[in-house]
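Minutes, project check-in
Item: structure for the 297-residue chain
Input as provided by the requester:
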Amino acid sequence: MPQAFAFRALGAWEHHKFKSEPTLDSPARPVVSKYLLWPPLFARAVRKPEFLSKEITSNKAAAITANQPPTATRMTAEDRRLQILRVAVSLFSQRGFGGTTTKEIAQAAGVSEAMVFRHFATKQELYRAILDHKACSGDSMNPEQMVAEALKQKDDRAVFEQLALGALEHHECDPEFQRLLLHSALEGHELAQMFFEKFVRRVYELLGGYIAERQRDGAMIKIDPAIVVRAFIGMIIHHSLNNNLWDPNRRLLRISNAKAAKHFTDILLNGIAAAGDSTSKKKTERKAAGNGFSRKK
């Protein structure tokens, strides 16, 4: 009798199934019931119907969870944000901004695109975060802090040599960021202007103001401070570009960053003309204006 009842129940269920199979247009139905399933219909003894209404208790759920293998630790929101940021910098430096999409950033980071926008609502916010992250990564991106004591002491050599060394060390340790800035400039990307306002202009104002002050002190010759700053930064940037992009094997020049910073500072402050080489005072002044920016006190 129980078997006959089971077959009749199975036949009724099959009939109901084919008549009520949901279509793509039909409303969604729950996939998993919160109730325990009825034991197999082909069991020798059919259990009492009241067992059908017994819910899975929290204790049982806890026991099931306890037997599951441990899952990997989830990243904190800050760690996830930093991970996305690093992936974005890497992709931007390799492919440029026009060749990188938020979808590709999400795939490389192993997250959904929605997760990227959760941490960075707009691309502009992502670009600002890149600059802020780099600004907080070391003193080499904070020129005022790097040479604060040298500026106070008016130590010309320390000011220029410390700035040069900090920039060279930063470029060597983080070539990705240099490539990213080149991409931004070549593509006319807004990040290039953001970097100019946040860092380049600050260096020009810092060094330009210091040079003008030293000119008033009589320690440096009269020349447009912006030209001096351009010459100084030019030596540093060209050296870094050679090392990172054009000549990574250092075939043309193999020199430590410390020595490079020292020699660049020597050239800036003392020039390359030998002392006493000029034949007239006027010629000496012209050479000084063209080759040297420091005058002995």
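Outcome recorded: Residues 13-72, 291-297 have pLDDT under 50 and may be disordered.
No further action items on this chain.
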